[in-house]
Amino acid sequence: MAYFAQHVVFEGLEEKNLTAPGTAYFGYGGSYAGAFVAFLRLVYPDVYYGTISSSGVTQAIWDFWRYYEPIREYGPPNCISIHTKLINVVDIILQNNKKYIPQLKVAFGLEGITYDDDFAQVLSYPIGGWQGRNWDPEVNDPSFNEYCGNITYPSLINNASANATASIRELLHAGGYSDYNSALTIPMVNFINYIKTTYVSPVLNSDENQTVDQTYSTHNQTFYGQDDLSQNWRSWPYQYCTQWGFLQTGSGVPSDRLPLVSRLLTLEYNSLICRYAFNITTPPDTEAVNKYGGFNISYPRLAIIDGEEDPWRGASPHSPQAKNYGNRTSTTEEPFLLIDGAVHHWDENGLFPNETTATLPPAPVKEVQGQEVAFVKAWLEDFRAGKA
Asked: What is the pTM of this model?
């Protein structure tokens, strides 16, 4: 990016020198790119006059169990309460009452999955839809709300069979929830049917001729050992295996609370890809990222924008783990803005004037986007005035 700004020649404008530092260049990025534009401002301050880091993950973290904590804090309380209990039932059986494991896997239609941690991973998938929520209906992923709607529905849905409830009650008892048996029976049946409908049936009805084990297993050395140029999935795992981390575990969750994903999702399990794909068996060098400031990154004309409910907030300067959490002031020179009710880089997308409504964009998003326009204009005035 720095090379581009210093050397670019635009077609039709060849006679004009539009390169930095004579021309003001600004960077904007969300999430991973948000971290990079933050670092860009620090490393190339004479090339990029200002940058906006939206949901920038500037703090690399090996065991990022806190990824799920905003869901606990901001998600629908009844859904979160039921979900954590259902995951706990599964964990108790998988860890402490193993004779019921075959019955548990059959109930979910996942008897073909060999490894218990792979099975637990599939059951943990639905909660991950939280990150995809967006204020724009065209961008929004509705899966989290659909999942919550399923497990909190007061009666059986999706043609769930009442005949299955006897087996489900036995599993709930085996999972330590005898006292909650009647209250959790319908949620568990609806949870099972959601998993079957969303994750099992598409595999079994696909033309790919894949088994559920082939589709969902992380214990797949043959697949991860592929390294020809068509394996374009490898670039991001290599980065998190070597520097970023961000392994989202259930095992790291403190014992004083129920995790939102299975405790079988450990660092060892989530790092299997590092071993199989790259022969990396040690934790990543997170200091290679965190040396730029991590939670506390700060620089003139570096704007930090985050979403209040973003699961990645725990890796950003708005993290409650930041040294100066709650005491950092937003200024025109160093904007520091948290969007109420927002998830992942909600300021990034917008609507044309003829598409806006009384509620879209939401007021908090509209307000922050307006502030972004205002402070970038102020930065441009500073540039024109010759301010370094």
From this structure: 0.95
